[in-house]
Amino acid sequence: MAAYLVIPSCPSSSYSSISSSSSSSSSRRTSFLTRRDSFSDYSRSRNCIRYSFKSSLPEPSRFGNGKPIVPILNERSLPEFLESARMGKPVNRSSNRLKLFSGTANLALSQEISRYMGLELSKINIKRFADGEIYVQLKESVRGCDVYLIQPTCPPANENLMELLVMVDACRRASAKNITAVIPYFGYARADRKTQGRESIAAKLVANLITEAGANRVLACDLHSGQSMGYFDIPVDHVYCEPVILDYLASKTISYNDLVVVSPDVGGVARARAFAKKLSDAPLAIVDKRRQAHNVAEVMNLIGDVKGKVAVMVDDMIDTAGTISKGAALLHQEGAREVYACCTHAVFSPPAIERLSSGLFQEVIVTNTIPAITENYFPQLTVLSVANLLGETIWRVHDDCSPASHERSSVMATQPSKKF
Length: 420
Description:
Elements: E1 4-6, E2 21-23, H1 32-42, E3 62-64, E4 67-69, E5 92-94, E6 98-102, H2 107-117, E7 124-128, E8 134-138, E9 146-150, H3 157-173, E10 178-183, H4 202-213, E11 217-221, E12 236-239, H5 242-250, E13 259-263, H6 269-278, E14 284-293, E15 296-303, E16 310-318, H7 322-333, E17 338-346, H8 352-356, E18 363-367, E19 381-384, H9 387-398
Parallel strand pairs: 1-19, 2-5, 6-9, 9-10, 10-11, 11-12, 13-14, 13-16, 16-17, 17-18, 18-19
Antiparallel strand pairs: 3-4, 7-8, 14-15
């Protein structure tokens, strides 16, 4: 069974859709008066709209060759969880003075975001010198603009982080009005506290570097821990990607009575509990394990009942897959019928691919916050796109509206059902 890329769409369902419209860019201004009028229009106050949510059970996707068919979006439609918000007035999608730049870490995701937003990526020249130093030159003016720099700090983490810092510095020195670092995957997020004496807290150091480079705001997806937001002295918009995975799981039409959500460790219980609540308040199980060293995990026992059930393991990232694969083996020993692995960030450090493709998992569901390379594909892998989610969040931040992704508690199944 060949691996494939799945782009979440807006299937026909009972969710209401967000009414949205895009306003055209202002025409070229040739006089002081027209410039003044245009700036006056642009600075008009905008009121955020209060959202009212309702939800029901999504229809299953069509199937082909045993795999759900999820059509690729070619229009500005929203992820299904955002369709539940009916706005009295659409977001003012003015591209005036909005610039999108992409680093080299995940160009494919940046292109998907720009297509969703109906914009073109701004031109930038990024290259490496022979000694490894990074050179960045903006190829168009950003003076007075709201600039969004899309660059995950995924492996190679140090190079991608330095590239982001140089991009931020280039925008600051080019007189950009606002600089937002869009970081789909925030590297060093796991170094958020001291677990032993004389350790560094690298997450705080990276936050300081981004702030001192000149960023005014950070937009990040599924941080490893919530306290990482407090390490920044600038606003942080935390985008939760779980609704994208929930929409896809809904297409699997798994019976509610057969479902159990599993946290691979005690630290992820809050995440798994929130995930289970949105799956019609599914039962929860916990894998208790003890970590003996970095990237080495030992599974101890299971808290909860998984016998004869479909187990959905939920985590924020998969690195070497030691924790989640040993947890899956334990679930099978305890009688689980099928095991699904769901995570936002697919780091996939060796030997993750060997562990994930060993037959323990029915399916491994991840997102494209980190680019998926061909060598990392295996038959059970499904990659979902978060481009529409990030694109919509950028529009709302640009228009001074609250990102809808923060309304986590409102987007969930309100009553149990036979199928979620």
